[in-house]
Amino acid sequence: MPIAIAIDGPAASGKGTVARGVARRLGYRYLDTGAMYRAVALLAQQRGVDWTDSQALGRLARQLDLDFRWDGEYAKVLVDGHDISGAIRSQEIGWGASAVAVHPSVRSALVARQRVLADHGGVVVDGRDIGSVVLPQAELKIYLDATLDERARRRHDELRRRGIHQNLAQVRDEVAARDAQDSGRATGPLAVAPGAVRVDTTNHSIAEVIEIVAKLAKDRCP
Ligand code: DC
């Protein structure tokens, strides 16, 4: 029987790539919850809503007309029917997502949607609070980690591939600042969920990590 797999971890730990790879390997759906926080941050910016305005952000998150459309391996993220997949991947919106994610009004609205989208098992969900808050009943919970230097290097490489040239030290500072904000908030902070298996990816390739998680998933299938 298909199970639910929760994958949490800090910024640039490889969660998205691993979650997508595991979903493909097992024939499961993949839900990228970070994209939902990013969508709220982008919409707020477009509508002139401040990332500190808890009430207005809560309203935005509740009314968000969000859709995921599969396009081969990647899901397109649509808001009000517009494809925002590229726009939400900027560094600025990454930081904005972390800022709007601090507000309980935003989290409660998005967590409720995530539970509906992840219903029925056969799903890999990645984020910060999936094993602890969104799907505490998930059959397999993974906490992906890597050293700050390694995560900064990966983010730096990813940015370079996208044509964004930033100094490695600056990327490292941004990754560290995002982790501090995501771990320090009162509601749904980044944390190792009870029962989660910690996987340190520092010295593993993506393919190896996908293999490790897929094997753990097969062992947990009833
Ligand atoms: O995984 P990501 O980089 O796309 O996430 C962007 C931000 O969204 C992250 O810094 C914190 C927030 N987030 C969250 O608070 N809870 C989640 N389940 C997923 C993301």
Beta-strand content bin = 15-25%
Class by SSE composition:
alpha/beta
Any idea of the CATH class?
Alpha Beta
Number of strands: 8
Care to describe what's here?
By secondary structure, the chain is α/β, with parallel strands linked by helices. The protein has one domain (4-207): P-loop containing nucleotide triphosphate hydrolases (Rossmann fold), CATH 3.40.50.300. It has nine helices and eight strands. The protein has helices at residues 15-26, 33-47, 54-63, 91-100, 104-117, 130-134, 148-161, 168-184, 206-220; strands at residues 4-8, 29-32, 66-71, 74-79, 82-83, 123-127, 140-145, 197-200. The strands form two sheets. Strands 2-6-1-7-8 form a five-stranded parallel beta sheet. It has a three-stranded antiparallel beta sheet with strand order 3-4-5, with helices on one face. Helix 1 (15-26) packs across helix 9, helix 3 runs parallel beside helix 5 (104-117) and helix 7 crosses helix 8 (168-184). It is globular. The termini are close together. 42% of the residues are buried. The model has no long low-confidence stretch (mean pLDDT 95).
SSE map:
Blueprint: E1 4-8, H1 15-26, E2 29-32, H2 33-47, H3 54-63, E3 66-71, E4 74-79, E5 82-83, H4 91-100, H5 104-117, E6 123-127, H6 130-134, E7 140-145, H7 148-161, H8 168-184, E8 197-200, H9 206-220
Parallel strand pairs: 1-6, 1-7, 2-6, 7-8
Antiparallel strand pairs: 3-4, 4-5
Bound molecules: 2'-deoxycytidine-5'-monophosphate.
2'-deoxycytidine-5'-monophosphate binds at residues 11, 33-34, 37-38, 94, 97-98, 101, 127-130, 178, 182.
